[in-house]
Write a structure and sequence with these properties.
Number of strands: 11
Distance between the termini: 53 Å
Shape: globular
Structural class: alpha/beta
Helix content: 25-40%
Strand order of the largest sheet: 1-11-8-7-5-6
CATH class of the largest domain: Alpha Beta
CATH superfamily of the largest domain: NAD(P)-binding Rossmann-like Domain
CATH architecture of the largest domain: 3-Layer(aba) Sandwich
CATH topology of the largest domain: Rossmann fold
Number of domains: 2
Order of helices and strands: EHEHEHEHHHEHEHEEEEHEH
Number of helices: 10
Strand content: 15-25%
Length: about 300
């Protein structure tokens, strides 16, 4: 018998898109311009093409304008930065994302820092990370923000709970650890940040009231690593071969869903959990930028 509840990111993301669409319509009625998100895509990586395609489609659904700027893998760092500087000064564009990963000959750090913090709707710029860490208004990285929104919409208690995060990336693990520990609603948790070098990892994960798996390894978290009634949020997404699907592929997460779901109070599916929430968080940040609510 299923006793766990699904944290349905697909359903919640559709609700949020409808809210954003209504707000865009209200903006347009006041004579304001249509929010505009620009994306830079380098090369023809299949996963990146898919992610950017989802973002462009989401923009259409909520009434945003979107621009997709493509470069070959051979693009120089200087050429890419010049394009970013040009977009920074374009008053019609509210948000800019550079789809990662980028070619090895280009410095990811330099590209992230080149984006104006006021248009950094991915929330990766050091100024946005710093403001977020200090509890100041900022564009929060899309995946952590999406996770917080799922927690909020399902009214999951976080105050005083032990939140264990497995994975220390700058995009998910580190910002998530800061956000969950902050003195805010849907924060106030006691946070443990673990990673691949953590000793006795399963002893720590077993203590989690809320477990956030973002280690980037397929089905890394098994049923022996969690306690009963744990809330499990699976950030991972991996494409593996499968004989049970028409396409010959299926998507799985960092968690062995079928094995441990019965022990959970709430759990995110893959796909349909964190992924859709990441995209709507990007839209929310772009709307904030269009309304000039973070940086004036």
């Amino acid at each position: 018998m299923q006793n766990y509840k699904i944290l349905d990111g697909k359903k919640i993301s559709e609700e949020i898109k409808n809210e954003i669409k209504a707000e865009v319509n209200n903006l347009l009625l006041t004579g304001a311009k249509r929010p505009h998100l620009a994306a830079i895509l380098i090369g023809n990586d299949g996963a990146s093409e898919t992610y950017v395609g989802h973002k462009v489609k989401a923009c259409e659904q909520v009434g945003f304008k979107s621009s997709l700027i493509r470069f070959d893998n051979s693009v120089s760092e200087h050429e890419l930065i010049q394009k970013i500087i040009e977009i920074n000064s374009d008053k019609d564009i509210d948000g800019l994302i550079v789809q990662l990963p980028i070619p090895a000959h280009i410095s990811e750090e330099k590209i992230i820092e080149a984006i104006s913090p006021a248009k950094d709707v991915d929330g990766f710029h050091p100024i946005n990370i710093g403001r977020m860490a200090l509890g100041m208004p900022a564009y929060i990285s899309a995946t952590p923000q999406g996770i917080l929104e799922l927690i909020r919409r399902y009214t999951i208690e976080t105050s005083g709970k032990h939140c264990v995060i497995v994975g220390r990336s700058n995009i998910v693990g580190k910002p998530m650890s800061i956000l969950m520990s902050q003195k805010k609603s849907y924060g106030n948790a006691t946070v443990t940040l673990c990673h691949s070098q953590t000793k006795n990892l399963s002893e720590i994960t077993k203590q989690a009231d809320i477990l956030i798996a973002a280690i980037g390894q397929p089905e890394f978290i098994n049923s022996e690593m969690i306690k009963e009634n744990c809330v499990v949020i699976d950030v991972g997404i991996h494409r593996i071969k499968s004989e049970s699907t028409k396409s010959g592929w299926k998507l799985i997460g960092d968690v062995k869903f079928d094995e441990l779901a019965h022990k959970c109070s709430y759990i995110t599916p893959v796909p349909g959990g964190v992924g859709p929430m990441t995209i709507v968080s990007l839209l929310k940040n772009t709307l904030l930028s269009a309304k000039k609510e973070i940086f004036i």
